[in-house]
């Protein structure tokens, strides 16, 4: 995709005429209620919100009815906000520090300008972008005091990053060899219970 041309509302066409959708959301749980302002829903593909968003906000709604006191835990909500801020700042710092070496897709071939970044936040964690996204995503559920979605998000994101870390490290070992293996020995992944790819020497 080389660019996106606005067509109507949130719908756009790529230069090859493939339809794509950009969905923005204002984090208002009433959006899932049929009596709420549903303009965002009408603009979504299939006129439905993704199930992950619906589940999150359904839980907020049910908790307000059945566990209203759960939503009144200010310290928990504040902790979630701190997790979100920490995660977002760490992820942005990782992207900024890596510069042109950062990519949202694991690279399978090393480019001429590809270098191993070990300074800045990469001196703390081997995968600071993953760590940031991990804590950001869980923090959103802690902020909203959603215990069920919080656990589901944590387990899902943990598994995604366990697999992603291993896939990325295979490429990094291939690209940088012993230099990466030494870095791997010194610096943790930053993700709980994730060591990265196992290397047999």
From TrEMBL:
Gene Ontology CC: one annotated term: endoplasmic reticulum membrane
Catalysed transformations (reactions): [protein]-C-terminal S-[(2E,6E)-farnesyl]-L-cysteine + S-adenosyl-L-methionine = [protein]-C-terminal S-[(2E,6E)-farnesyl]-L-cysteine methyl ester + S-adenosyl-L-homocysteine
Classification via Pfam families: ICMT, Put_Phosphatase
Enzyme Commission designation: 2.1.1.100
MF GO annotations: phosphatase activity; protein C-terminal S-isoprenylcysteine carboxyl O-methyltransferase activity
Keywords from the named record: Endoplasmic reticulum, Membrane, Methyltransferase, S-adenosyl-L-methionine, Transferase, Transmembrane, Transmembrane helix
Keyword Nucleotide-binding: no
Compartment list: Endoplasmic reticulum membrane; Membrane
Membrane topology value: Multi-pass membrane protein
InterPro entries assigned to the protein according to its UniProt record, in alphabetical order: ICMT_MeTrfase, Pase_PHOSPHO-typ, PPMT_MeTrfase
BP terms from Gene Ontology: methylation
Similarity-based family: Belongs to the class VI-like SAM-binding methyltransferase superfamily. Isoprenylcysteine carboxyl methyltransferase family.
Role: Catalyzes the post-translational methylation of isoprenylated C-terminal cysteine residues.
Protein's recorded name: Protein-S-isoprenylcysteine O-methyltransferase
Organism: Sciurus carolinensis (Eastern gray squirrel)
